[in-house]
Amino acid sequence: MLGTVLYGPRDIRCEEVAEPKILHPTDAIIKLSATCICGSDLWPYRGLNEVSQPMHMGHEYCGVVVEVGSAVRTVKPGQFVVGSFCISDNTCPHCRLGFQSSCEQREFMSGAQATLARVPLADGTLVATAETPTEDLIPSLLATSDVLGTGWYAADAAHVQPGSTVVVVGDGAVGLMGVLAAKQMGAARIIAMSRHKSRQELALEYGATDIVAARGEEGVAKVRDLTQRIGADSVLECVGTQESMSQALACARPGSMIGYVGVPHGVQFDGQRLFFTQVGLMGGPAPVRRFLPHLMDLVLTRKINPGKVFDLIVPLADVAEGYKAMDERRAIKTLLRV
User: Is the pLDDT of residue 125 over 90?
Assistant: First the structure.
């Protein structure tokens, strides 16, 4: 079958790889209906994460079950399923408290930019639809696997409330999903920090009320002007750099929360500054499995359309162009047709 393999910085290939097999009784094999490239995939692609051996890429997935292990009970061959990028049993103490991304058996999904994929802990990771969804819903269902769930977690962790003021730092796919999530949670004002016209337009479509194109101190000053010098009730940090985290902290009012979901690269905190800022922080890998049934229902009932975040669609064989387009910011997020 075809699969995506990263050999080194900007050396990504679609090539013949071995088909996955059931390795444990709790495994399932799915035939991908669609997969995609994540912003976090760009870190190793750009050489910012070490690649010591060829990496099978892809952790966002949806498709049809073709085989299950002997212990799998909740999904069966022929069902359409979506799974979280974090593999979990959904039964351990952390899972029961809603933090499946800290499951005692946690794994991170890999190898999903391919024709077929093995999903460990299938009962705890996969959620099946009642019937096969129509083709036009596939992109939005795929988005629930990670990018929408991660944006949703950013808003949840930041305690977005009805009537609140929210700032979203980052206009990538996760930031845009954070805008959508904040709108669904009833935020009255959503300030999206974005310098790119196409992303600004989608942010406005998803519910942003204001756009701030400036960065750094100028951007913070603009946010302060928009909030009567108070700052935001909730801030969603969706990048993972020192600049974005510093900007998030500066935009937050005392007593507010920052939900940070950008994978940190070089981020450091000044303990004394945090002490006097009086801002709460909650983040980490998103427990997508907690939100997945609700998000899938919102998609299936057509109340939201997160699939619009895919502004480039290419066949799996052209995955290298998909990575290049995202790396060069010509695309927000690339969907791969299998």
Answer: yes
